[in-house]
């Protein structure tokens, strides 16, 4: 049976009154969100995936109490506000972005010291050909939190990619699209289908990705870009340099430093 109370168990097990929430299966589903998750394969899969993301983020958290308190609030928000599958799906997408944003930034690769130029016509040992797409490393943000990648330097050479094309490539083969795009900066262009805020208050944009209105490309922004993002309108065409993060609940997600 599917365990749906893993967030409740993880966050409430530290409290005496939460001891009974350790196990929960679909036969005991009570709330509307739980029943929706049990009856919808996509939501059930999203729940399984978020558990992995959640466990990894919780293991990294330095303040476990603060992490548990916030997770408990988010879980309660879903239980109180979601009455349909679209709401639950959006909740999972918000949580994936929230916990993924807390992943530690990778340190930039150490550059070798300059050496004397090699003779004409000879290859320098250990030198690889330049990548097709630039891949800048993310820098640590204020207060120790990871910052969104600064895509501005890489934007000069970033290739133009349509949101519809990016979505189509990921639907065709996630692994192939990841090899081509993940962690790299592209100039994504498309039509705005929504301007929203994640659970942590960070703004994000949805770009139309296909005829199906549920198919979108998500562009995440820091709160410093909120004013610029808020000026965008549904139906507006935009182009912005962002770093590709991969798929979240079936939709490509990118992180952007500045509003279009």
A few lines on this structure:
It is built from 9 helices and 6 strands.
Structural description of this entry:
- The protein is an alpha/beta fold.
- It folds into two domains: 6-100, no CATH class; 142-256, OB fold (Dihydrolipoamide Acetyltransferase, E2P) (Beta Barrel).
- Helix content is 37%, strand content 17%.
- The protein has nine helices and six strands; from the N terminus they run H-H-H-H-H-H-E-H-H-E-E-E-H-E-E.
- The protein has helices at residues 6-12, 32-39, 41-60, 64-81, 85-100, 152-155, 163-172, 174-181, 226-230; strands at residues 160-162, 185-197, 203-208, 216-220, 237-248, 251-256.
- A five-stranded mixed β-barrel has the order 2-3-4-6-5.
- A hairpin with a 7-residue loop joins strand 3 and strand 4 (216-220).
- Helix 1 (6-12) packs across helix 4.
- The longest helix is centred in the first third of the chain and has 20 residues, at 41-60.
- The N and C termini lie far apart (46 Å).
- The relative contact order is 0.11.
- The model is unreliable at 12-24, 105-113, 118-132 and 134-146 (pLDDT under 50).
């Amino acid at each position: 049976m599917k365990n749906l109370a893993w967030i409740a168990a993880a966050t409430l097990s530290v409290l005496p009154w939460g001891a009974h929430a350790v196990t929960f299966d679909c036969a005991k589903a009570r709330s509307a969100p739980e029943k929706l998750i049990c009856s919808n394969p996509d939501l059930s899969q999203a729940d399984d995936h978020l558990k992995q993301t959640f466990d990894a983020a919780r293991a990294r958290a330095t303040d476990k109490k603060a992490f548990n308190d916030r997770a408990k609030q988010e879980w309660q928000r879903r239980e109180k506000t979601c009455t349909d599958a679209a709401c639950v799906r959006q909740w999972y997408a918000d949580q994936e972005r929230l916990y993924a944003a807390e992943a530690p930034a990778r340190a930039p690769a150490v550059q070798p010291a300059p050496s004397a130029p090699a003779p004409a016509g000879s290859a320098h040992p250990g030198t690889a050909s330049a990548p097709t797409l630039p891949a800048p490393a993310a820098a640590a943000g204020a207060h120790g939190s990871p910052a969104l990648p600064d895509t501005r330097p890489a934007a000069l050479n970033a290739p133009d990619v349509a949101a519809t094309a990016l979505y189509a490539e990921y639907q065709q083969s996630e692994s192939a699209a990841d090899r081509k795009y993940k962690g790299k900066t592209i100039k994504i262009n498309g039509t705005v289908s929504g301007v929203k805020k994640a659970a942590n208050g960070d703004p994000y944009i949805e770009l139309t990705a296909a005829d199906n209105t549920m198919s979108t490309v998500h562009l995440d922004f820091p709160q410093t870009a909120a004013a610029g993002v808020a000026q965008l309108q549904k139906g507006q065409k935009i182009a912005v340099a962002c770093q590709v993060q991969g798929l979240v609940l079936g939709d490509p997600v990118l992180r952007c430093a500045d509003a279009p």
